[in-house]
Task: structure prediction
Amino acid sequence: MNYPIIIYPCDEGGYVAEVPALKGCLAQGETLPETLEELAIVTQLWLETAQKQGRPLPDLERAIQKVKALS
Result:
């Protein structure tokens, strides 16, 4: 699933990216490509862990609406 993400620059340099629908799923990097690469890894791990634990995944449409409300 492709959950919406939020990316923002850090004051000290680099970027932070997060998947708001997946609690605690965030990554940081010095460059935007590095940050997105790290986020892809942690997102996959988050989803795999949820699946192994039998937790339901957040609803994609609800996640999209949540990000739209934040912007």
Notes: The longest strand covers residues 6-9. Strands lie at 6-9, 15-18, 26-29.
